[in-house]
Design a protein that fits this description.
Strand content: 5-15%
Number of strands: 20
Domain CW-type: 580-630
Region (Disordered): 156-180, 254-282, 735-758, 856-920
GO molecular function, one term: zinc ion binding
Shape: elongated
Keywords: DNA-binding, Metal-binding, Nucleus, Transcription, Transcription regulation, Zinc, Zinc-finger
Largest sheet: 7 strands, mixed
Pfam families: B3, zf-CW, zf_VAL1_N
Mean pLDDT: 49
Length: 920
DNA sequence: ACTCTGCATGTTACA
DNA sequence: GTAACATGCAGAGTA
């Protein structure tokens, strides 16, 4: 398709180019997160189902998890007005946080029925940001300021959130189809609640006079609520699961009218961890399988992180050290004795902890809170019993460390070995009361799916948006069930001793690596590959902006569509080849997931369903049967997967193998001119070069041969490749000329002239360069997201190759280049001279190079040298632009976007009939 | 040569 | 920015 044939060449270029880059950058993360979200896919189900689990878990809890709003802990039942007190250890429940706010005594609650707890629309709303703000602020105020206590309200707000979740739970059951929006709301609510819970927590731990602490939260939350809302709207996965404390807790606590002991009782709402830890290690997620009906049976296995119940400085104990011990485990520890087991803390063994050195580093706060105070580094021997009843004596000591202390338990190797523990396993420390005996338990790490999820979920922290929600939702049904099965497998299966099935193994190292905020951008190699693949696919999905109408630009008798808006991502399709020689395009309906055959030249919008299938009236409704048999469908998908794999492998190869670049690549492309039909012979009719390019496509992308193949182009070569290169360059120069003209105008009117146009040109140059420089089909994927600076390596490799070929060395400092050139000691063209060349008017350039027309180069002119100059020019421009692109790389943290999609319009819409056209 | 001990240092979490 | 923590490392001790 080209201008000669009167068909518009579809390009995405122009002022929207830089915007496109930005959008693509954003999309990288969306895709990346989507990949994970797909793998994690816990969003809708877990959070909703957790609620039931936790409720029951807390019903069974023998520990007071009740929120204490003040010293006395007294409450009035919202129903009967009875005076209640939060009970503590060992007695039965007396009050309940009501969904509609306030509290109720158990009898009232039971009378009214848990599920039918009336809702309060006002509280339940959360429809606006203001609601969130108000409620949260009120909550905090009430909780924190003893002088301004409105006993009912603190819980009210918390319950408002709980209530919201509850109703959502119900909604989910009623209508799963609405889950996207609701999930989002719930996530917001959950997260807000979580923040609130930290307030609760802090208040609870703090004496009355700790108002300064609370003020901080008040400020943070009331001021930040709106922002929070906003951010939460985009960070959902982790938040959803990270707010267990906001589940509808039924606080079965004891001590009806008794006072005291509440100081020992950690607040239930503290289960929701600090706002910072939006994604705590979610032991509860595993429990998500349990619906109300089955909850009771599962209860002893529910691994709930219990805030430490006492100890010096326990309020500083990080949640990651909170013991996640089940009631069953507690029972096993305490046995039949009358002892009370008090979970203290736990720690995931590091490599050094589990190593032969035999030193277990203790969390400072834990050591100081629960172990005997020591003043000398030598410490003292500590007798700890293991779950088998065997006593071990460890040396509890510390090392001075940065004006602090580093506590260790020495001599733990025998114990660890006897437990067969290794790095990643968890040791738990508990205390038997009233003896005060320390007990050491353990949980083995597991590689179960669920645990992987926990790690993954941590990595999802703050990284999703509605986009992801939708994805997650789509996978909810399938993988959600899978998760359930996995969890079911574990459910109720205790391991030996305390080593019960580790429903959660918050392997710190792992979660650190991929889950921490600072490492948000880190992905493992597998993910990276997956992401890269997806990202490459993202290129395929580029579509012209939906609403924007292109302006038609005539360049050398070619009509170009020029868009001001950046492209959008369209729907992925798969191409197949018929045995008869034709091609088909297959798209999957968003609604029914059936695959529909489409004409090959159709570009679908991002959202597409059967009803949009205007090409097949018989199959324009979802109810219509799928054309493909199950086997065909499977084959189709398999082929697509195979193609992906090939592309990945090819990319890997590209990364590790130097390749001819620039003109070498173009030269080799000459071979292909007529002799395509290369390698990727597959039923999927996409070429191996790019899925959107099909057999027959003769665009600059597709006409290039695989790396290293084909003869070099001769100077006089007038093959398609060379001609295309020349045409590209000509187009570039034309645009430059145009810019110059504009610049002259702009000089008279400076405000109207910004760097944007410059960027545009550079982008164009980059785009051209990309096309020129990519000799390998897969390497042509313009955007490569890589980790660990591999992309840099590739760039450098390429640069090195170019240098060998007497081209610009991208590693050289521009000034040095210039100096070198001035010194005449280098055969490289200096940067400045190249820039000068680039800035020459087209006519001058042509004249200087003995050209009369780029469309019809002088026979005597050396094609090679021209092309080299062209490429040098392009390289220079690209290099010149490079510093400005740093944001692209930096935005990605350790992952860099090597190059933006410069060929987006090209590759994204290339059709078999648009060959020999210049997208630039 | 190997292990142990004490400390130093780099990384990460957290405020 | 700082504290906490995981781990490295050098020197001492021991087989």
């Amino acid at each position: 398709m080209n201008g000669d044939e009167g068909v518009h060449e579809r390009i995405v270029w122009g002022n929207g180019f830089d915007q496109m880059e930005e959008r693509l950058e954003v999309e990288i993360w969306r895709v990346r997160d989507a990949v994970r979200s797909v793998r994690v896919n816990l969003v809708p189900s877990i959070s909703l189902r957790l609620r039931a689990v936790f409720r029951s878990a807390y019903e069974q809890s023998t520990y007071c998890d009740t929120y204490h709003s003040n010293e006395s802990g007294w409450r009035d039942c919202s129903s009967c007005g009875k005076r209640l007190h939060c009970g503590c250890i060992a007695s039965k429940s007396l009050l309940e946080l009501l969904d509609n706010g306030g509290i109720g005594c158990i009898s009232c609650v039971r009378r009214s029925g848990l599920a039918s707890t009336p809702t309060d629309e006002k509280i339940n709303g959360f429809a606006t940001r203001n609601n969130v703000t108000e409620v949260r602020s009120a909550s905090v105020d009430n909780n924190m300021d003893a002088d301004n206590v409105d006993v009912g309200r603190p819980l009210q707000s918390g319950n408002a959130e709980v209530n919201e979740q509850n109703s959502l739970l119900q909604s989910q059951r009623d209508d799963k189809n609405e889950s996207v929006g609701k999930i989002k709301r719930e996530q917001i609510v959950a997260a807000v609640g979580e923040v609130g819970s930290s307030s609760f927590s802090n208040f609870n731990h703090s004496p009355i006079g700790s108002s300064h602490f609370s003020k901080r939260y008040i400020n943070k939350e009331s001021v930040g609520a709106r922002d929070l809302y906003d951010s939460l709207a985009q960070t959902c996965l982790s938040i959803t699961l990270g707010a267990p404390g906001n589940t509808n807790l039924t606080l079965d606590h004891s001590g009806t009218i008794e006072g005291g002991e509440h100081s020992r009782a950690p607040p239930s709402l503290e289960q929701g961890q600090r706002s910072r830890q939006l994604m705590p290690k979610p032991p509860k997620m595993n429990s998500g399988i349990v619906h109300d009906a089955t909850t009771k049976e599962m209860l002893p296995q529910i691994r709930v992180a219990r805030p430490p119940v006492e100890g010096r400085g326990r309020n500083q104990l990080l949640p990651r050290y909170w013991p996640r011990i089940t009631d069953q485990e507690l029972q096993q520890i305490s046995g039949d004795s009358n002892s009370t087991i008090v979970p203290l803390f736990e720690k995931v063994l590091s490599a050094s902890d589990a190593g032969r050195i035999g030193r277990l580093v203790l969390p400072k706060a834990c050591a100081e809170a629960y172990f005997p105070p020591i003043s000398q580094p030598e410490g003292l021997p500590l007798k700890i019993q293991d779950v088998k009843g065997k006593d071990w004596v460890f040396q509890f000591r510390f090392w001075p460390n940065n004006n602090s202390r580093m506590y260790v338990l020495e001599g733990v190797t025998p114990c660890i070995q006897s437990m067969q523990l290794q790095a990643g396993d968890t040791v738990t420390f508990s205390r038997l009361d009233p003896e005060g005996k320390l007990v050491m338990g353990f949980r083995k790490a597991s590689s179960c799916t669920t645990c992987s999820y926990s790690v993954l979920l941590q990595s999802m922290k703050g990284s999703t948006d509605l986009h992801i929600n939708a994805l997650s939702e789509s996978f909810h049904a399938v993988d959600g069930d899978l998760s359930w099965r996995n969890i079911d497998r574990h459910g109720g299966r205790p391991n030996e001793g305390l080593a019960l099935q580790p429903l959660l193994v918050p392997e710190k190292k792992r979660s650190r690596n991929i889950g921490s905020k600072s490492k948000r951008l880190l992905i493992d190699s597998e993910d990276a590959l997956e992401l890269k693949l997806t990202w490459e696919e993202a290129q395929d999905l580029l579509r012209p902006p939906p609403s924007a109408k292109p302006s038609i630009v005539m360049i050398e008798d070619h009509e170009f569509e020029e868009y001001e808006e950046p492209p959008v991502f369209g729907k992925k399709t798969i191409f197949t080849a018929r045995s008869s020689g034709g091609q088909d395009q297959w798209a999957q309906c968003d609604n029914c997931s059936k695959w529909r055959r489409l004409p090959v030249d159709v570009l679908l919008p991002p959202k597409w369903s059967c009803i949009d299938n205007a090409w097949d009236p018989k199959r324009c409704v979802c109810s219509a049967a799928e054309e493909l048999s199950p086997m065909d469908r499977e084959n189709l998908l398999k082929l697509d997967r195979d193609l992906k794999k090939r592309r990945i492998m090819a990319n890997q190869k590209l990364m590790h193998e130097p390749e001819p670049s620039g003109l070498d690549a173009l030269a080799t492309a000459a071979v292909l001119g007529e002799g395509r039909g290369d390698s990727g012979a597959t039923c999927v009719a996409t070429t191996t070069k790019h899925p959107r390019h099909r057999p027959g496509c003769t665009c600059i992308v597709c006409i290039q041969p695989p790396s290293g193949k084909g003869p070099k182009h001769k100077p006089t070569c007038t093959c398609t490749v060379c001609m295309t290169v020349k045409r590209r360059f000509k187009t570039l120069m034309m645009r430059k000329k145009k810019r110059q003209t504009e610049a002259e105008v702009a000089q008279r009117n400076p405000p109207g002239w910004g760097p944007k146009d410059e960027v545009e040109v550079d982008s164009a140059a980059r785009g051209a360069l990309l096309a020129l420089d990519s000799s390998d089909a897969e390497g042509r994927q313009a955007i490569v997201l890589e980790s660990g600076g591999q992309s840099n390596a590739v760039s450098i490799d390429k640069a090195s190759e170019m240098n060998k070929a007497g081209k610009i060395d991208l590693n050289c400092h521009p000034d040095r280049d210039d100096q070198d050139a001035q010194a005449g000691g280098s055969d490289r063209m200096s940067m400045m001279s190249l820039l000068q060349v680039a800035s020459l008017p087209l006519e001058t350039y042509l004249k200087q190079n003995g050209l009369t027309s780029l469309a019809a180069p002088e026979p005597q002119a050396s094609s090679t040298s021209q092309a080299q100059q062209q490429q040098q020019l392009l390289v220079v421009e690209s290099e010149e632009k490079a510093p400005d692109e740093s944001h692209l790389a930096s935005a990605g943290g350790e992952h860099e976007i090597t190059t933006p999609i410069a060929t987006g319009g090209d590759e994204g819409s290339c059709r078999p009939d648009n060959a020999q056209t210049d997208p630039v």
